[in-house]
Amino acid sequence: MRQRKDFTRSEGKKSARLVIIATEGTDTEPIYFEAVKADLCSSNVHVEVLRRTDGGSSPENVYHQLQMFKEENNIAEDDELWVVVDRDKWTEKMLSEVALYCHQDNNLKFCVSNPCFELWLLLHLEDITSYPSEELQQLRENRRVSKNGPTWLKHKMRQLLGSYSESSYDAYRLLPTIDTAIVRAVKLDAFPTDRWPQDIGTRVYLLVRSIMGKNK
What we know:
Structural class: alpha/beta
Shape: globular
Strand content: 15-25%
Number of strands: 7
Number of helices: 8
Order of helices and strands: EEHEHEEHEHHHHEH
Helix content: 25-40%
């Protein structure tokens, strides 16, 4: 049997609660969570953002990355391992299977954005409940704005920030309004006991609260 090791926490955080994050995206989510870790992390929380391996971006592959981490490290009861994925291109069956795995393991947390992670970024900048129904439908569908162009949400972020790409954006610019984003995400989460948001919504607010030590 493989011997598990004690995960090395930062100096000064030897007894900190672990928050381990595995994401579908290789850039967008890590850029954001590394900024939150650097600027807003609670003193009793140690955050690690796992870099995605070449196993693919499916919910199951993201889940397996965390399972491998858990098998290789000693995990305490209050440590949290977060599966961060989008709703948009994955089937109900694929999401349901991973949601079940997470439900059966107290350390695992299932964090879905519908349609995708850029919704969480957008909530730092605008209250989407003020959007007209036509614009909300465009957000919900999140199609490309032109044949080879960005998706609707990426285009919207580019309009609001001046420049935006999934591999290059200034996450620190968003952090001053993170509490506002949390409030807006909570408002959208009309059915928080559902496994993931069935309509426009994101559970990233739960992960951010945990990192900031505001989850109690």
